[in-house]
Amino acid sequence: MLRKLIVAGALAAMTLGTNPVHAEFPERTVENIFPWSAGTALSVSQVIAKAMGEELGVSVPVISTPGAAGTKAFITAMNRPADGYTIFDGYVAPLVLQPVLGNADWTYKDFKPLHSAVSNAFSIGGRKGETRWTDFEGLMAYGKANPGKLRYSSGSRNNLPHMVIAKVLQSYGVVAQNIPYKTDGDARKDLKAGVLDFSFVNVGAYLQDKEGFEILLVLSELPGAKASYDGAPSITDLKIDLGLSGLAPMGWTWWLVHKDTPDEVADVLRAAMTRAMNRDDVKEQISRVGFVPLDWDHTQYDEIVGPVAGQLGAMSNALAWEEEELKKLR
User: Fold this and answer.
1) pTM of the model
2) Rounded Cα distance, 77 and 80, in Å
Protein backbone atom coordinates (compact mmCIF):
# COMPACT_ATOMS: atom_id res chain seq x y z
CA MET A 1 0.00 0.00 0.00
CA LEU A 2 2.85 2.37 0.94
CA ARG A 3 4.53 1.70 -2.42
CA LYS A 4 1.27 2.49 -4.24
CA LEU A 5 0.94 5.78 -2.36
CA ILE A 6 4.53 6.72 -3.20
CA VAL A 7 3.97 5.94 -6.90
CA ALA A 8 0.69 7.87 -6.88
CA GLY A 9 2.39 10.82 -5.23
CA ALA A 10 5.20 10.75 -7.76
CA LEU A 11 2.72 10.65 -10.65
CA ALA A 12 0.83 13.56 -9.15
CA ALA A 13 4.04 15.54 -8.79
CA MET A 14 4.96 14.78 -12.41
CA THR A 15 1.52 15.91 -13.54
CA LEU A 16 1.84 19.14 -11.59
CA GLY A 17 5.29 19.64 -13.05
CA THR A 18 4.00 19.42 -16.61
CA ASN A 19 1.20 21.92 -16.02
CA PRO A 20 2.22 25.60 -15.98
CA VAL A 21 1.84 27.44 -12.71
CA HIS A 22 -0.17 29.98 -14.62
CA ALA A 23 -2.84 27.50 -15.75
CA GLU A 24 -5.43 29.27 -13.56
CA PHE A 25 -4.48 32.78 -14.69
CA PRO A 26 -6.05 35.18 -13.95
CA GLU A 27 -6.98 34.64 -10.33
CA ARG A 28 -7.45 38.32 -9.46
CA THR A 29 -7.84 41.81 -10.89
CA VAL A 30 -5.79 42.72 -13.98
CA GLU A 31 -4.97 46.45 -14.09
CA ASN A 32 -4.67 48.61 -17.19
CA ILE A 33 -2.24 51.52 -16.64
CA PHE A 34 -3.57 54.42 -18.70
CA PRO A 35 -1.24 57.36 -19.52
CA TRP A 36 -3.69 60.28 -19.61
CA SER A 37 -6.27 62.06 -17.46
CA ALA A 38 -10.03 61.55 -17.68
CA GLY A 39 -11.58 62.14 -21.09
CA THR A 40 -12.86 60.36 -24.18
CA ALA A 41 -9.72 58.24 -24.54
CA LEU A 42 -10.09 56.98 -20.98
CA SER A 43 -13.75 56.11 -21.52
CA VAL A 44 -12.84 54.15 -24.66
CA SER A 45 -10.22 52.15 -22.77
CA GLN A 46 -12.81 51.47 -20.09
CA VAL A 47 -15.16 50.03 -22.71
CA ILE A 48 -12.47 47.61 -23.91
CA ALA A 49 -11.33 46.78 -20.37
CA LYS A 50 -14.87 46.00 -19.24
CA ALA A 51 -15.40 43.63 -22.18
CA MET A 52 -11.99 42.06 -21.68
CA GLY A 53 -12.75 41.54 -17.99
CA GLU A 54 -15.99 39.80 -18.92
CA GLU A 55 -14.04 37.48 -21.19
CA LEU A 56 -11.42 36.78 -18.49
CA GLY A 57 -13.88 36.48 -15.63
CA VAL A 58 -12.12 39.13 -13.51
CA SER A 59 -12.24 42.90 -13.17
CA VAL A 60 -9.96 45.00 -15.43
CA PRO A 61 -9.94 48.54 -14.02
CA VAL A 62 -8.30 51.35 -16.00
CA ILE A 63 -5.91 53.31 -13.78
CA SER A 64 -5.31 56.89 -14.95
CA THR A 65 -1.61 57.71 -14.47
CA PRO A 66 -0.90 60.98 -16.30
CA GLY A 67 2.43 62.77 -16.41
CA ALA A 68 5.59 63.29 -18.47
CA ALA A 69 3.84 62.92 -21.85
CA GLY A 70 2.64 59.43 -20.94
CA THR A 71 5.98 58.05 -19.80
CA LYS A 72 5.01 58.12 -16.12
CA ALA A 73 2.41 55.43 -16.81
CA PHE A 74 4.96 53.27 -18.62
CA ILE A 75 7.50 53.58 -15.82
CA THR A 76 4.79 52.73 -13.30
CA ALA A 77 3.82 49.62 -15.25
CA MET A 78 7.44 48.56 -15.83
CA ASN A 79 8.04 48.60 -12.10
CA ARG A 80 5.30 46.02 -11.57
CA PRO A 81 5.99 42.24 -11.74
CA ALA A 82 5.94 40.68 -15.21
CA ASP A 83 3.07 38.38 -14.28
CA GLY A 84 0.32 39.54 -16.64
CA TYR A 85 -1.62 41.40 -13.96
CA THR A 86 -0.50 44.76 -15.38
CA ILE A 87 -1.38 45.91 -18.90
CA PHE A 88 0.30 48.89 -20.58
CA ASP A 89 -2.23 51.06 -22.42
CA GLY A 90 0.39 51.72 -25.08
CA TYR A 91 -0.46 55.06 -26.62
CA VAL A 92 1.81 56.28 -29.40
CA ALA A 93 3.28 59.17 -27.38
CA PRO A 94 4.95 57.12 -24.62
CA LEU A 95 5.43 54.01 -26.76
CA VAL A 96 7.05 55.51 -29.87
CA LEU A 97 7.15 59.32 -29.91
CA GLN A 98 8.98 59.98 -26.63
CA PRO A 99 11.72 57.42 -27.45
CA VAL A 100 12.12 59.09 -30.89
CA LEU A 101 12.51 62.46 -29.16
CA GLY A 102 15.07 61.00 -26.72
CA ASN A 103 12.78 61.31 -23.70
CA ALA A 104 12.47 57.58 -22.95
CA ASP A 105 15.00 54.75 -22.92
CA TRP A 106 12.79 52.05 -24.43
CA THR A 107 11.46 51.17 -27.87
CA TYR A 108 8.28 49.46 -29.00
CA LYS A 109 10.28 46.22 -29.20
CA ASP A 110 10.73 46.17 -25.43
CA PHE A 111 7.15 45.02 -24.83
CA LYS A 112 5.01 42.00 -25.60
CA PRO A 113 1.93 42.95 -27.67
CA LEU A 114 -1.58 41.76 -26.88
CA HIS A 115 -3.79 43.38 -29.54
CA SER A 116 -4.33 46.74 -31.23
CA ALA A 117 -7.03 48.81 -29.55
CA VAL A 118 -8.18 52.08 -31.14
CA SER A 119 -7.08 55.08 -33.16
CA ASN A 120 -8.34 58.65 -33.11
CA ALA A 121 -7.57 60.64 -36.23
CA PHE A 122 -6.63 64.31 -36.29
CA SER A 123 -7.96 66.82 -38.79
CA ILE A 124 -7.18 70.26 -40.14
CA GLY A 125 -10.19 72.50 -39.71
CA GLY A 126 -11.10 75.94 -40.95
CA ARG A 127 -13.93 78.26 -40.04
CA LYS A 128 -17.29 78.24 -41.72
CA GLY A 129 -17.82 80.88 -44.40
CA GLU A 130 -14.14 81.19 -45.38
CA THR A 131 -13.86 83.08 -48.71
CA ARG A 132 -10.12 82.87 -49.42
CA TRP A 133 -10.29 79.17 -50.25
CA THR A 134 -12.90 76.46 -50.52
CA ASP A 135 -10.86 73.34 -49.83
CA PHE A 136 -7.52 72.12 -48.52
CA GLU A 137 -5.73 72.44 -51.87
CA GLY A 138 -6.94 76.05 -52.01
CA LEU A 139 -5.56 76.67 -48.52
CA MET A 140 -2.20 75.28 -49.60
CA ALA A 141 -2.19 77.44 -52.75
CA TYR A 142 -2.90 80.52 -50.63
CA GLY A 143 -0.15 79.59 -48.19
CA LYS A 144 2.35 79.03 -50.99
CA ALA A 145 1.58 82.47 -52.39
CA ASN A 146 1.79 84.13 -48.97
CA PRO A 147 4.78 82.64 -47.09
CA GLY A 148 4.53 82.98 -43.33
CA LYS A 149 1.15 84.74 -43.40
CA LEU A 150 -1.04 81.81 -42.36
CA ARG A 151 -1.54 81.33 -38.63
CA TYR A 152 -2.56 77.99 -37.16
CA SER A 153 -2.48 76.08 -33.90
CA SER A 154 -1.95 72.50 -32.82
CA GLY A 155 -2.66 73.45 -29.22
CA SER A 156 0.76 73.17 -27.63
CA ARG A 157 3.82 73.29 -29.87
CA ASN A 158 5.97 70.27 -30.79
CA ASN A 159 3.22 67.80 -29.93
CA LEU A 160 2.10 65.04 -32.28
CA PRO A 161 -0.58 67.12 -34.09
CA HIS A 162 2.05 69.83 -34.67
CA MET A 163 4.46 67.26 -36.09
CA VAL A 164 1.84 65.87 -38.45
CA ILE A 165 0.66 69.28 -39.67
CA ALA A 166 4.26 70.49 -40.14
CA LYS A 167 4.96 67.43 -42.30
CA VAL A 168 1.89 68.20 -44.42
CA LEU A 169 2.92 71.84 -44.83
CA GLN A 170 6.49 70.87 -45.68
CA SER A 171 5.21 68.50 -48.38
CA TYR A 172 3.47 71.48 -50.01
CA GLY A 173 6.30 73.92 -49.32
CA VAL A 174 3.97 76.09 -47.24
CA VAL A 175 5.46 78.09 -44.37
CA ALA A 176 2.94 78.98 -41.65
CA GLN A 177 3.11 80.22 -38.07
CA ASN A 178 2.13 77.83 -35.28
CA ILE A 179 0.55 79.76 -32.40
CA PRO A 180 0.66 77.93 -29.03
CA TYR A 181 -2.41 77.76 -26.78
CA LYS A 182 -2.88 76.44 -23.28
CA THR A 183 -5.99 74.54 -24.35
CA ASP A 184 -7.29 73.26 -27.68
CA GLY A 185 -10.63 74.89 -26.86
CA ASP A 186 -9.05 78.37 -26.80
CA ALA A 187 -7.47 77.71 -30.19
CA ARG A 188 -10.80 76.66 -31.66
CA LYS A 189 -12.45 79.83 -30.32
CA ASP A 190 -9.81 81.95 -32.05
CA LEU A 191 -10.26 79.94 -35.24
CA LYS A 192 -13.95 80.83 -35.27
CA ALA A 193 -13.10 84.47 -34.48
CA GLY A 194 -10.68 84.72 -37.41
CA VAL A 195 -7.54 85.07 -35.29
CA LEU A 196 -6.31 81.76 -36.74
CA ASP A 197 -6.58 80.67 -40.36
CA PHE A 198 -6.79 76.94 -39.61
CA SER A 199 -6.30 74.64 -36.65
CA PHE A 200 -5.94 71.11 -35.41
CA VAL A 201 -9.41 69.74 -34.62
CA ASN A 202 -9.73 66.39 -32.87
CA VAL A 203 -12.64 64.07 -33.47
CA GLY A 204 -14.21 64.75 -30.07
CA ALA A 205 -14.35 68.50 -30.73
CA TYR A 206 -15.81 67.90 -34.18
CA LEU A 207 -18.56 65.59 -32.92
CA GLN A 208 -19.52 68.11 -30.24
CA ASP A 209 -19.69 71.04 -32.68
CA LYS A 210 -20.09 69.81 -36.26
CA GLU A 211 -21.44 73.15 -37.43
CA GLY A 212 -18.55 75.06 -35.91
CA PHE A 213 -15.83 73.96 -38.33
CA GLU A 214 -15.16 73.19 -41.96
CA ILE A 215 -13.04 70.03 -41.92
CA LEU A 216 -10.53 70.55 -44.71
CA LEU A 217 -8.44 67.39 -44.29
CA VAL A 218 -8.64 64.23 -42.19
CA LEU A 219 -5.08 63.23 -41.33
CA SER A 220 -5.52 59.49 -41.76
CA GLU A 221 -5.87 56.94 -44.52
CA LEU A 222 -8.14 54.65 -42.48
CA PRO A 223 -11.71 54.49 -43.87
CA GLY A 224 -13.10 54.52 -40.34
CA ALA A 225 -11.35 57.83 -39.63
CA LYS A 226 -12.91 59.47 -42.66
CA ALA A 227 -16.29 58.18 -41.56
CA SER A 228 -15.76 59.73 -38.11
CA TYR A 229 -15.57 63.13 -39.80
CA ASP A 230 -18.66 62.41 -41.91
CA GLY A 231 -16.74 61.74 -45.12
CA ALA A 232 -14.56 64.86 -45.14
CA PRO A 233 -11.54 64.70 -47.51
CA SER A 234 -8.63 62.65 -46.18
CA ILE A 235 -4.98 62.31 -47.11
CA THR A 236 -5.94 59.55 -49.55
CA ASP A 237 -7.80 62.16 -51.62
CA LEU A 238 -4.76 64.38 -52.15
CA LYS A 239 -2.77 64.54 -55.37
CA ILE A 240 0.58 64.22 -53.59
CA ASP A 241 2.10 61.63 -51.26
CA LEU A 242 2.68 63.19 -47.86
CA GLY A 243 4.83 60.31 -46.64
CA LEU A 244 2.21 59.61 -43.97
CA SER A 245 0.65 56.18 -43.75
CA GLY A 246 -0.68 53.57 -41.35
CA LEU A 247 -0.93 54.70 -37.73
CA ALA A 248 1.80 57.35 -37.97
CA PRO A 249 -0.26 60.55 -38.41
CA MET A 250 -2.77 60.01 -35.60
CA GLY A 251 -3.32 59.05 -32.00
CA TRP A 252 -3.61 55.32 -31.28
CA THR A 253 -3.03 52.69 -28.65
CA TRP A 254 -1.88 49.09 -28.64
CA TRP A 255 -2.24 47.11 -25.41
CA LEU A 256 0.95 45.47 -24.16
CA VAL A 257 2.49 43.60 -21.27
CA HIS A 258 6.00 43.42 -19.86
CA LYS A 259 8.35 41.60 -22.25
CA ASP A 260 9.18 38.99 -19.58
CA THR A 261 5.54 37.99 -19.11
CA PRO A 262 5.26 34.20 -19.63
CA ASP A 263 3.90 33.33 -23.08
CA GLU A 264 1.10 31.21 -21.66
CA VAL A 265 -0.12 34.19 -19.62
CA ALA A 266 0.18 36.60 -22.55
CA ASP A 267 -1.78 34.16 -24.70
CA VAL A 268 -4.68 34.17 -22.23
CA LEU A 269 -4.78 37.97 -22.34
CA ARG A 270 -4.45 38.03 -26.12
CA ALA A 271 -7.34 35.64 -26.60
CA ALA A 272 -9.57 37.63 -24.23
CA MET A 273 -8.75 40.96 -25.86
CA THR A 274 -9.29 39.53 -29.34
CA ARG A 275 -12.74 38.31 -28.32
CA ALA A 276 -13.49 41.70 -26.74
CA MET A 277 -12.40 43.66 -29.83
CA ASN A 278 -14.51 41.40 -32.06
CA ARG A 279 -17.70 42.10 -30.11
CA ASP A 280 -20.24 44.25 -31.95
CA ASP A 281 -21.23 46.11 -28.78
CA VAL A 282 -17.60 47.11 -28.18
CA LYS A 283 -17.11 48.29 -31.75
CA GLU A 284 -20.33 50.29 -31.63
CA GLN A 285 -19.42 52.05 -28.37
CA ILE A 286 -15.95 52.93 -29.69
CA SER A 287 -17.25 54.22 -33.02
CA ARG A 288 -19.96 56.29 -31.33
CA VAL A 289 -17.34 58.69 -29.94
CA GLY A 290 -15.43 58.93 -33.23
CA PHE A 291 -12.61 56.53 -32.39
CA VAL A 292 -11.81 53.67 -34.76
CA PRO A 293 -11.58 50.11 -33.39
CA LEU A 294 -8.49 48.34 -34.72
CA ASP A 295 -8.32 44.66 -35.60
CA TRP A 296 -4.58 43.91 -35.85
CA ASP A 297 -3.49 41.07 -33.59
CA HIS A 298 -0.15 40.52 -31.84
CA THR A 299 1.42 38.81 -34.87
CA GLN A 300 1.14 42.11 -36.84
CA TYR A 301 2.66 44.33 -34.14
CA ASP A 302 6.11 44.75 -35.72
CA GLU A 303 4.63 45.21 -39.20
CA ILE A 304 2.22 47.96 -38.09
CA VAL A 305 4.06 49.73 -35.27
CA GLY A 306 7.58 49.41 -36.69
CA PRO A 307 7.21 51.99 -39.52
CA VAL A 308 5.72 54.59 -37.17
CA ALA A 309 9.08 55.48 -35.59
CA GLY A 310 10.64 56.31 -38.96
CA GLN A 311 7.72 58.51 -39.98
CA LEU A 312 7.77 60.30 -36.62
CA GLY A 313 11.45 61.01 -37.21
CA ALA A 314 10.56 62.63 -40.54
CA MET A 315 7.83 64.66 -38.81
CA SER A 316 10.34 65.84 -36.22
CA ASN A 317 12.55 67.02 -39.08
CA ALA A 318 9.54 68.91 -40.46
CA LEU A 319 9.32 70.88 -37.20
CA ALA A 320 12.94 71.95 -37.63
CA TRP A 321 12.22 72.85 -41.27
CA GLU A 322 9.26 75.00 -40.26
CA GLU A 323 11.29 76.89 -37.67
CA GLU A 324 14.17 77.47 -40.07
CA GLU A 325 11.89 78.75 -42.85
CA LEU A 326 10.14 81.14 -40.47
CA LYS A 327 13.52 82.55 -39.39
CA LYS A 328 14.30 83.33 -43.02
CA LEU A 329 11.13 85.41 -43.26
CA ARG A 330 11.79 87.51 -40.15
Assistant:
1) 0.89
2) 5
Task: Write the pLDDT tens digit of every residue in 209-259.
Answer: 999 999 999 999 999 999 999 999 999 999 899 999 999 999 999 999 999
Contact by Cβ (8 Å): 205, 181: no
Fold observed for domain 29-119+250-296: D-Maltodextrin-Binding Protein; domain 2 (3.40.190)
Please tell me the class of the 122-247+314-329 domain.
alpha beta
- CATH code 3.40.190.150 region(s) in the chain: 29-119+250-296
Rounded Cα gap, residues 315 and 317, in angstroms: 5
CATH 3.40.190.10 occupies which residues in the chain? Answer: 122-247+314-329
Q: Are the C-beta atoms of 75 and 63 separated by less than 8 Å?
A: no
Q: β-strands 111-120, 292-293: how paired?
A: antiparallel
Per DSSP, the residues of 102-133 read TS-S--GGGEEEEEEEEEE-EEEEE-TT--S-
